[in-house]
TrEMBL record:
Coiled coil: none annotated. Keywords: Signal. This is T9SS type A sorting domain-containing protein. PANTHER family: PROPROTEIN CONVERTASE P. Transmembrane segments: none annotated. Residues 411-477 form the Secretion system C-terminal sorting domain. The keyword ATP-binding does not apply.
């Protein structure tokens, strides 16, 4: 495995970046699904981003398929026993039991005989044996939801991932918080959200909005009790107990998505939301954070609103700024629009992208071919093309080094098990170091310093980004 990592290590030390390019890679073995869930995770510990697709196919049969990645972005169906098939639900990976591999939750509408017909809402939690084979956990104590959102997050800073679930459950909207005991056993803890709202067509987002070191919470969707569109923002007290923020100035949405990201590189988490507003208008709005968790709507943005889709950030052109993709339906068109971040929270819609607009869609970014840029899978429905799943390979074109000093920065030893030394030229100052996994998730961040600790990271390839006063260095690093 380490030999493979060594062969894949290369340096990206550029300060000028050309426009990003994507190409469609035809993968006929991937199932085409709408009302979909798309998730990447390294399920078998080989350092590659594997792919889960769930949803209804073109004949409206329900499907769930897990595909293993060969490291070059080619996917083959795994040997897993049948996973629960769903539509209008959610799927998420997380290491629920602290054993170093990615476990799996699936919830949604599935094929089951009920008094009301042949479909019902169910939830299943699966434990990974470390090689990518999943076994169902009996009686996990979770309420099934559809038209749903799920999110794993360590809410109480005890080192394990807890769980939030929201959606249609038991004939009404529901929002549930479950606390993990560290072994993958979850206990209902709704008392931790005293002013909880119960939602269908739900969206859940979490981030540290006030820079106090704990994740705060946003819930938005349709209230199951009266069909009103509602939103609530909560601050975490550090132990997983949430207090509702009064009048946060954020408009509620449903049938859409919300995500926190630092879009202007000022050290705090901003907020992007898309979907239908209380008047059912399709919107896409960016709110800027003042650093204390107070948000202001940014005016004059180029974003085109949509619903029945999603929104996510990724750095698609390796310029140090987070770009954003929005998918969904806006009469009369299906949308899949990429907006490039120009800095200072100013965005421009990318043109000539090959993305096919999708309704009832979901998508996810990951570096599927280990070439240090973020690729993309979108699954949904397009008229007149039908139900589709498309893999887009990022072919970002990097130019040569503009600042020769950056080419002399060295990271060693690489591969490593414990730490990496950062050797910089005399007169150069390290401002910040970040490490990202192949899903684009920030896994290590430190201010300055010339030693980077990666001891706690799983064995895999990562992208180290070294910010200096002379420029930015990107280099693949291997942890074994």
């Amino acid at each position: 495995m380490i030999k493979k990592y060594i062969l894949n290590i290369f340096v990206l030390a550029f300060s000028i970046v050309q426009a990003q390019e994507f190409s469609i890679r035809e993968m006929p073995n991937l199932i085409n699904v709408q009302y979909s869930s798309v998730a990447f995770a390294d399920v078998n510990g080989d350092g590659n981003a594997d792919l889960l697709l769930c949803g209804a196919d073109g004949g409206y049969a329900l499907r769930s398929s897990l595909y293993l990645n060969d490291g070059q972005g080619n996917f083959s169906l795994s040997d897993n026993p049948d996973l629960m098939v769903i539509r209008e639900g959610a799927a998420a990976f997380a290491d629920i039991d602290g054993d170093g591999d990615q476990d799996l939750l699936i919830t949604g509408i599935t094929e089951v005989v009920t008094p009301a017909g042949n479909y019902g809402t169910r939830v299943k939690l699966y434990r990974n044996n470390g090689t990518g084979l999943f076994s169902e956990i009996a009686n996990p104590g979770l309420e099934a939801v559809s038209q749903s959102a799920v999110l794993f997050q360590d809410i109480d800073n005890d080192g394990d991932v807890d769980l939030l679930m929201a959606g249609q459950g038991g004939g009404a909207g529901t929002t549930n918080l479950y606390v993990n005991d560290g072994s993958g056993n979850f206990t209902l803890a709704n008392a931790n959200i005293p002013a909880k709202i119960n939602l269908i067509y739900a969206t859940i987002a979490m981030a540290d909005i006030d820079n106090d070191g704990d994740p705060d919470l946003l819930l938005t969707g349709m209230d199951g009790s009266d069909n009103q569109i509602r939103m609530a923002l909560y601050k975490n007290n550090g132990s997983g107990v949430f207090t509702k923020v009064n009048n946060p100035g954020i408009e509620p949405i449903f049938t859409g998505g919300a995500v926190f990201e630092d879009v202007d590189n000022d050290g705090d988490m901003d907020l992007m939301m898309m979907g239908a507003d209380p008047l059912y208008a399709k919107v896409a709005k960016l709110y800027l954070n003042d650093g204390s968790g107070n948000f202001t709507l940014k005016a004059n943005t180029p974003f085109i609103g949509a619903q029945y889709g999603d929104v996510k950030f990724a750095e698609v052109n390796n310029d140090g700024l987070k770009d954003v993709l929005i998918t969904g339906y806006r009469n009369p068109n299906m949308r899949a629009d990429l907006y490039i971040n120009n800095g200072n929270a100013e965005f421009t819609m990318a043109t000539d992208m090959p993305f096919i607009g999708m309704n009832n869609s979901a998508f996810a970014f990951a570096d599927v071919d280990n070439d240090a840029d973020m690729d993309l899978v979108i699954a949904g429905q397009n008229s007149p093309l039908g139900t589709l799943t498309k893999l887009y390979i990022n072919q970002t074109n990097m130019l040569s080094v503009a600042n020769p000093q950056m080419a002399t920065v060295k990271l060693y030893p690489n591969p490593t098990h414990h730490s990496i030394n950062v050797e910089i030229p005399v007169g150069t100052m390290v401002e910040k170091i970040e490490v990202y996994d192949n899903l684009g998730k920030l896994v290590v961040q430190q201010q300055s310093g010339q030693t980077l600790s990666v001891e706690k990271l799983p064995t895999a390839l990562y992208m180290a980004v070294i910010y200096t006063d002379k420029g930015i260095l990107r280099q693949k690093i291997a942890k074994y």
